[in-house]
Amino acid sequence: MKKNKRREFIKSAGLTGLAFAGGNLMQPFANASELQPEILQTMNNENSTSLIGQYGEWAASLIEKKLPSHSFRNGHFKNVNDWRKTARKQLTDRLSIPEMGGMPDVKVNRQYEYDGLHVEEISWQLAYGNATEAIVLKPANAKGKLPAILAFHDHGGNKYFGTRKITRTSDTQHPMMLAHQQEYYEGMAWANEIARRGYVVLVSDAFPFASRRVKLADVPDNIRKGLSDSDPEKQENIDAYNAWAGEHEHIMAKSLFCAGTTWPGVFFAEDKIALDILCKRNDVDADRIGCGGLSGGGMRTVFMAGIDERIKCAVPVGFMTTWKDFMLHKSFTHTWMVYVPLLPNEMDFPEIISLRTPSPTLVLNDINDDLYTLPEMKNADAILKQIYEKTGASERYRCSFYPGPHKFDKAMQAEAFDWFDKWLKA
Fold first, then answer.
1. What 3-state DSSP class applies to 140?
2. Is residue 278 part of a domain?
């Protein structure tokens, strides 16, 4: 999908997670002073108007007049453990995380070796929906307990695919996934690449992607738009399904709100089951687990790493900004999956993942990422730096800005993998 198609898709469906590889291995920029003049001009232009017109200044004032109530930047929070306990409870209350029940039975559907890796295709059945399908990767002939990565696939405006976006398990790939990995990840299946470095990697289909997607046969005729689930692997049918699924997002979000939960809450609940499964494996050292992902996977990393202390190292990619950025400039480029009602009163978006301080966190951004404004990406970085400094853990936080559009290319992967190695293999 080329950039002009991406813009058309954003305009028509209002989705996030569309990634485009930069195609070079340039080093990240350390600060705004290194940016080119035309980029700085774009930054100024983006912030001169608001998506909600004259109401933008008023809306921004609702959250800008004071620090969020549960921010560790507030002076009344002195003890990091007390703050974390209080703020996490507030966050989980706002998410209204649904109950998943106990650990599901995990079925191993197939095992084999591919390109130096041992591959397991597994699945588990939750109390609702289709069975969740997942892929586990590790070095072939690996012995003993290994550190592990919970790898999150992106959104990409493509709900037909899930695990296949970041894995490769045979020489024969769907043409759409070859293109996806080339444009979004510079041709790499990044879950495979991190597994090669000595990790057990679990990638599961997120709600509602791939095996967890909404089936057309299960919705009323009047919203199907004449589509069906027949011949599902044909590209024109996949494109039609993805367009339908994009338009269905507002229905899903409203329905989840009416059910008393939130989309990020459902994400976390299902991702927590995947983490439970990963931790229970005999080949995993449950004290050395990290998580990461691009775009929608970066968003899931923020919530998972901010809440679950089993995540010892986190790398969100292409998903870090402020609620102000979403509100004034970029909500139209983002999925309904992002929003948690009332939470901006209590913590800014980067403060969700700050709940893990002093545990290691690496944030990777793209300077030309049109899903965010650069000033607000910089503001998010400043917030996280301040919190990590306040907890005496500055060396455990890093944020890098790379040239190019929304992506997770080879250079970014190299930094992410080295960060995992530093904190999970020591």
1. coil
2. no
Phi and psi (nearest 5°) for 161? -105, 155
What digits encode the pLDDT tens for the residues 84-109? 999 999 999 999 999 998 999 999 99
Task: Let me know whether 142 and 258 are in one domain.
Answer: yes
pLDDT number for residue 5: 41
Reduced to 3 states, what is the DSSP secondary structure of residue 332?
helix
Cα separations in angstroms, 111 against 118, 141, 169, 283: 7, 13, 11, 15
And the tokens for 360? 């290691």
**H runs (alpha helix) in 69-137:** 80-95
State how far the Cα of 409 lies from the Cα of 390, in Å rounded to an integer: 32
The dihedrals phi and psi of 47, each to the nearest 5 degrees, come to -95, 5
Tokens standing for 370? 């049109």
Overall number of domains in the chain: 2
Is the peptide bond between 232 and the residue preceding it cis, with omega within 30 degrees of 0? no
Whether residue 237 sits in one domain with residue 191: yes
**DSSP symbols for 39-78:** HHHHHHHHTTS-TTGGGHHHHHHHHHSS--TT-TTSTT--
The burial of 283, by beta-carbon neighbours within 10 Å (0-12 exposed, 13-18 middle, 19 or more buried), is given as middle
- Distance between CA 311 and CA 278 in Å, rounded? 11
H or E, element range at 421: helix 410-424
Q: What six digits make up the tokens of 206?
A: 């997120």
Q: Is 133:188 a contact under the CB 8 Å cutoff?
A: no
Alpha helices in 186-234 (DSSP H): 190-196, 221-224
Burial class (CB in 10 A: 0-12, 13-18, 19+), 113: exposed
Is residue 273 assigned to a domain?
Answer: no
- pLDDT value, residue 12: 41
Please list the ranges in the chain whose pLDDT falls under 50.
1-27, 29-44
* Closest to 209 measured CA to CA, from 247, 256, 258, 154: 154
Considering all CA atoms of the chain, what is the largest pairwise distance in Å, rounded to the nearest integer?
Answer: 62
Residue span of the structural domain in which 181 resides: 106-267
Give SS3 for 278. Answer: helix
Give pLDDT, residue 293.
Answer: 98
How far apart, in Å, do the first and last CA atoms of the chain sit?
A: 40
Last residue of a domain, one of 246, 267, 288: 267
* Residue 319: closest CA among 307, 335, 342, 340: 335
